[in-house]
Specification:
Layout: H1 2-22, H2 35-41, H3 43-74, H4 83-90
Helix pairs in contact: 1-3, 2-3
């Protein structure tokens, strides 16, 4: 049922986009090119029809969306787990790796590294 409602939503969206494109906008829109339909039905009747179709399709889109959500949540108990959920259950993640131990401090009885000889910072004779 969810697939059927999804198809209805797509059809409604396409029709709504076409109806909006045909409507007469401030700049004339695509409806200005359809002069023959304006002569048959009159400009005012064409505008009323397009406006009613727009509102009807917008309301239908909202109803289809809400009903699609309802049908999607109803089937939740009967559906299998997603592929990702199945992979997680089949291959559990390994335990988090532990941090490496810090290097041991040098023993206090060892000789310190040789230091360079001190140089005289103050020149004598000045």
């Amino acid at each position: 049922m969810y697939t059927f409602i999804s198809v209805l939503i797509i059809i409604t969206c396409v029709l709504l986009a076409l109806i909006v494109l045909v409507q007469n906008s401030k700049g004339g829109g695509l409806a200005s090119g359809l002069s023959s339909s304006n002569q048959i039905m009159g400009v005012r009747r064409t505008t009323d029809l397009l406006e009613k179709l727009t509102w009807g399709l917008a309301i239908a889109l909202m109803v289809f969306s809400v009903s699609g959500t309802i049908f999607m949540s109803e089937g939740g108990g009967n559906q299998e787990n997603s592929v990702v959920q199945q992979q997680l259950e089949d291959n559990p993640m390994p335990a988090a790796p532990t941090a490496p131990a810090p290097a041991p401090a040098p023993a206090p009885n060892q000789q310190p590294a040789a230091t360079p000889p001190a140089t005289n910072q103050n020149p004598q004779g000045n």
